[in-house]
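re: ur question from the group chat, yeah i did fold both. here u go
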Amino acid sequence: MRRMVAGNWKMNMLADGAAQLAGELRRGAGEPGCELLVCPPATVLAAVAHALLGSVCQVGAQDCHAEASGAHTGDLAAPMLRDAGATHVILGHSERRANHGETDAMVLAKVRAATRAGLVPVVCVGETLAEREGGWAESVVAGQLAGSLPHGFGQSGMAGLVAYEPVWAIGTGRTPTEADIAAMHAAIRHRVGPSVRILYGGSVKPGNAAAILALPEVGGALVGGASLDARSFLAIAAACPA
């Protein structure tokens, strides 16, 4: 299964910066040994999709609403994101779960909406530091998977990815041990079956990417801060095993 390196730009980039970064990615990507995906803010999604049209880099969104249309001021429906050029959408990111109170049921509804619109959902799961230190990490992630993924996720007719992001490692510079990453990915694999790529996210950078991407069941990386720099992002992609 070919690996994917996905960049989550989060709430960063105005039009000029996004255009510059997209241009650098287009020129520098070459023939990567993995799939590339970038997920810019909604305000520049269409422009970035246009700038990367025909390149090796796909474009995704960072969230979507569970409804296809309606009186939901400030929200964006999955068909709108598809219309703007997105092929994928990140759902259930820990920052959405924590900052916006998103429950597994809400994430599940969004996954179904994304699938109906023809978007590939990238569903995020992960434990807090307290849950890790309490010995509940695997059970927490298992519960998130059970509540957030529809039946048949990742199988024929329902494409999808899972991204494991330990909450305490996002943007902190801290990462779990390689053994911990491998163990959690094996546990996720047991629950999602053989056809779902499982990305690792949480302070992935050029210096640790090769070791992480070589671990069993790690099907790629979901990259935060390092994805805002084209050289760093492409260096992570270059670290994917052949």
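okk and heres the other one u asked abt
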Amino acid sequence: MNAQTRRSLIEGPAGAIEVAIDAAQGLRRGVAVISHPHPLFGGSLDNKVVQTLARAFSQCGWDSVRYNFRGVGASQGVHDEGRGELLDLLALIEQLQPDGALALAGFSFGAFVTSLALAPLLERRPIDKLVLVGTAASRFAVATIPPASHERTLVIHGEADDTVPLSAVMDWARPQSLPVMVLPGTGHFFHGQLPLLKSLVVRHLSA
């Protein structure tokens, strides 16, 4: 992402997990772990939306941690349809052992995996901020967000998303009374709208 990005490997359930960390700017608030889109369709920690999320978190005082799911880049293992990827995410958080606040974010398939991590994590610690972008609700069984976490959660979706229709996200959100922020005329990858995406996430993190 920039010259200060630190890349390393940590041990995960299927072997090494490739990690990229961008340090917090200004007063450090905690650690944000950001999950990327589907590994079988080119998703990686270098995805533009994932990098945009990392920039927003770093700007707001979070150490931004991007990582490659198993089988992507230098991460070992093979794609496991979300099951093993959840274990990767939980293992990464355990290895990082964030001593301050913890935030989670995910894009598309990464939002699905992030949703699965909420329940086991909330049994042990609070999640300070949650950001779900392009949530893949038409393709996977995205977990519900506990009501107590709603005020800390930002869900963003493009009105013109033809990969994950907005209607699928609304069908997921409606029973939960979970608000969804819709970007008019925007597709799944937020082409031309990444600065707006970043500003909306910054606003949420600053609230």
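fwiw on the second one: DSSP finds five helices and eight strands in the chain. Residues 83-96 form the longest helix (14 residues). idk if thats what u expected
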